[in-house]
Amino acid sequence: MTTAGATRDKPTTSSGRGPVRGPSVAELLASYRDGSRSPSAHVATVLETVERRGDDGTWISVDAAAARRRAAELEATPGASDLPLYGVPFAVKDSIDVAGFATTLACPAYAYEPGGTAPAVQRLLDAGAICLGKTNLDQFATGLNGTRTPYTVPRSVFGDDLISGGSSSGSALAVALGEVPFAVATDTAGSGRVPPALNGVLGFKPSRGLLSTVGLVPACRSLDCLSLVAADVDDLRLVLGLMAGVDERDPWSRPRRRRADDPARLRVGLPDEAELSFFGDTAMADAHHAARTAVARAFSTLTPPLAPFLAAGELLYAGPWVAERLVEFGDFLDEHRADVLPVVEQIISGGARFSATDVFRAQYRLAELKAEVARLFETMDVLVLPSVGTTFTVPEVLADPVATNTVLGHYTHFGNLLDLCAVAVPAGTTEDGRPVSLMVLAPALDDDLVLGVAARLLDPLPA
User: Fold this and answer.
1) Contact 439, 385 (CB under 8 A)
2) CATH code of the domain in which 219 resides
3) The pTM is what?
4) Hey, which residues are catalytic here?
5) What is the pLDDT of residues 225-283, one digit of tens each?
6) In CATH, what number is assigned to the domain containing residue 346?
């Protein structure tokens, strides 16, 4: 097994061309059926690509021998070729347990060997998929920028030292580099949407509880959900269908609800552009304006207020929910403070300042905002926003790690607090070549709805 910073070569310089289009799940399965490719051959090709790129910050651990062995076993098993993910490689964020891989949360002192595989990931293995390894993340899943790791700091596939986004940095990169068709990530405050947005791929945050979080080391247990990264909406639909299922061990678990509306007939909320913030980034503002203009031509739109959504988002880190991280990691901090990155330690320790009365006040305020947002969704089916208002380079984030991170979560922080599902959708580039992404949000259990809109947005829209 290869671990980050151990035996792999130095990273290859990024050309900054954006994401690489690897084969989708359907394309892989078709090539296996027609004999033009085999699982063993494809896995070997992917492993060669990973090795050639060197330690680029995507992976924390890769078990090449186990992946080759798994491919060979599948090929030798009668009937395995009929499995829905037969021989399909994928990646898993290193805050989720997979048997045979240490779970590190990007903190070597915290690492442990899990006793089993997270049930949602096991469903993928049972469907014939091949886990290549565990991907990099902001330590303890605390951050949206991708720089908070003791391993190699990843960069966006768009080059120019742009951040990868976090905390699910490696999951997004594994897809954006064409190494795997999909990856399993997590999303608490936007961790499953910001990195895909900054790497030109899809980031899907299902409704909280739809995918079991058993086997996930929690960041904020009441808000966490597993998320998915892919380059193809059909891959997201397939993987969601395989992973979703009620798990009685997960107290937030709930069943999936199907909704098959015609995306072209949906009511799309586009807030007044005066309410949108791009933090002085005029190129990003111009690119978003062009993207939303195309959306307005393709859908029936209305103009809901953005204020209640942003007000809910402000509660996340200004409110007591950050104390949930202290519940999970407080004892480890007490004994291993020197092993935790300073900015991560500062954020987690900050949870101690909140009282029980703070918790109740925040819950009352959130309940008011949830009711207001629910009334807004009575008039619209989905809300479309920028996924991010701007992005940064790695040096910019390192110079001001807290403020830049807050900016990155401006449009994502409220998603789980308000119990919404969401998907970040690539929407081209700015005039200076940086990624642009639209985020589609809807109430919980309207997952099929946001995926349908995502597919429509990826089709050529009216000019």
Assistant:
1) yes
2) 3.90.1300.10
3) 0.95
4) 93, 167, 191
5) 999 999 999 999 999 999 999 999 999 999 999 887 887 789 999 999 999 999 999 99
6) 1.20.58.1700
